[in-house]
Amino acid sequence: MGGRFHVQQLRLAVVAGSVGAVAIVAMATAAYTAPARTGIALLEPITQAVFYRTPAMTSFALVGDHVVLSAGDAVRTDATGRAYITYADGTSLVVEPNSDLVITVSAQDSDLLVLVTQNAGRVWYQISRTLSPSARYEVHSGSLAAVVRAGSTIQVDVTSDGTTVTAVEGTVDTSSGGSTVTVTAGTGTSVASGQPPVALAPTIVTLPSLPSATPQPFVAAPIASLPVATLPLPSIPTVTTPPPLAKPTPTPTPKKHEDPQPSSGKDDAHGHGR
Question: Per-residue pLDDT tens for 187-207?
Answer without folding.
Answer: 999 999 889 999 999 998 877
